[in-house]
Each structure stands twice: as C-alpha cells, then as structure tokens.
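Figure 6 in text form: structure in, sequence out.
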C-alpha cells in the first residue's frame, strides 16, 4: 500500500541550531503513527514543516504523490493535510458551528460575486458546507476544526494535553474513529498509555533526529528510547 504522506530526509535549522534533521516517515490511510520524544526533540518543528508553517531546508514532503514542501499552509490544507495545534485557536465571538465553517473554507468553492448577489450556486454551496459541518459536529462530539477541511492526513499536536483520564479515554475513542474513516493520522503525544494503545507505529525523535521506529512493543523495548525518553518518566511529562 502506498503511503498517503511520505516524508524523506526533512531537516530544519534556525541559525546554528538543527531543530530537525534527517527525518523520514510514512503515514497510511486508516493507520495511526505517533511521534514521541522528550521536550525539545523537534516534534512540533516537524509538524510545522509538514503543514507549511516552515519551509524545510532539506528533504521531501509528498502528499498522495505530490510534492508539497514549500507550499503555503492553506495550499497544503486544500490538498488534504490538516492539523491541530497545542493551543486551540477559536474565534470566541462565533458559535461552534461557525468555527467549524471557518475550517470548511479551504474546501468551499470561491463565489465572490455569488456571495454578494446571493446566487443559487452560492446558496447551494452554503447549504452543503452547513450540512458537512453539522455532520462533523455530530461525529466528533464538538471536535475542533481540523476535520472540517475533509483531510486525507490529520496531524494532531498533543491532543491529550490538559485532559483528565476520562477525557483522554474519550479522545482516544475519537482518534480511533477518525482512523476508521480511512484518514491517515499522525499524533504528537506525551501520554505513553495513549501512544501505546492507539498507535500502529511509533517514531521516536531525540535532539531533532530519529532514533527508533517500529510497533509500540518494539519501541517500548528499545534501549535508546528508554534512555532518551521513556526512562525519564512514565507520567507523560518526559
């Protein structure tokens, strides 16, 4: 099975600091890949390179066979890659539905004149967006806007941050149901119980470099991982 997202040798430096170097990964439809590592390992920098916030200095990012490295975030979103952030970015003056509709914008045809004149085509597009947004709210139980772009790849940056155990359990069920919709899911997470239970594969970074990749059991037993991350703490704070 060809990878939905294929990353080869991605690197990113800031001045003399190599935040990410030589990272390769594959994300497949209907599978969950987790990226773990201690604080400062380069996980969020990697996500920023994949989603267009940063332009990688080296390497390739291919989404369904198309090179997307260097494209703007909204262009990558249009091609099917969406992400969440550690800090939720919502518009507080808008309703939940309106916030989801903002996320749908990347998948909505542009009708500038139609919007001004409220043409039948514009009204039809608006109804379709509202129906899709409501379906997502019902599916996700008020999940954030990341699903609204109808992605083929979803990047989740610490979705369990700040949650209590029951909330984490509910979030795990949600992520599993997203996977079951055929979406390729890539997760950054510090909660090891969550990672080991939901992941098909795990990639471990340390100081910006990959040090291990495999199934959860393989990674759990890898002495390099124990030394770099898992051995520091089992409470999810690394």
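Output sequence:
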């Amino acid at each position: 099975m060809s990878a939905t997202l294929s990353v080869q040798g991605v690197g990113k430096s800031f001045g003399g600091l190599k935040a990410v170097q030589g990272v390769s990964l594959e994300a497949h439809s209907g599978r969950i890949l987790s990226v773990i590592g201690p604080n400062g390992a380069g996980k969020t920098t990697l996500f920023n390179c994949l989603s267009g916030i940063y332009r990688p200095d080296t390497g390739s990012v291919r989404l369904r066979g198309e090179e997307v490295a260097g494209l703007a975030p909204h262009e990558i979103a249009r091609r099917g890659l969406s992400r969440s952030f550690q800090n939720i970015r919502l518009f507080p003056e808008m309703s939940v539905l309106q916030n989801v509709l903002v996320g749908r914008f990347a998948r909505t045809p542009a009708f500038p004149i139609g919007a001004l004149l409220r043409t039948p085509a514009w009204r039809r597009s608006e109804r379709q967006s509202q129906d899709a947004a409501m379906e997502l709210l019902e599916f996700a139980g008020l999940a954030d806007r990341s699903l609204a772009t109808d992605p083929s790849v979803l990047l989740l940056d610490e979705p369990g941050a700040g949650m209590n155990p029951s909330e984490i359990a509910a979030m795990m069920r949600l992520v599993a149901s997203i996977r079951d919709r055929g979406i390729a899911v890539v997760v950054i997470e510090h909660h090891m119980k969550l990672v080991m239970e939901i992941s098909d594969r795990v990639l471990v970074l340390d100081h910006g470099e990959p040090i291990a990749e495999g199934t959860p059991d393989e990674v759990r037993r890898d002495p390099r991982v124990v030394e770099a991350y898992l051995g520091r703490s089992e409470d999810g704070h690394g």
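Caption detail: Strands lie at 5-14, 17-27, 32-36, 58-63, 66-67, 81-83, 153-157, 184-188, 201-206, 209-214.
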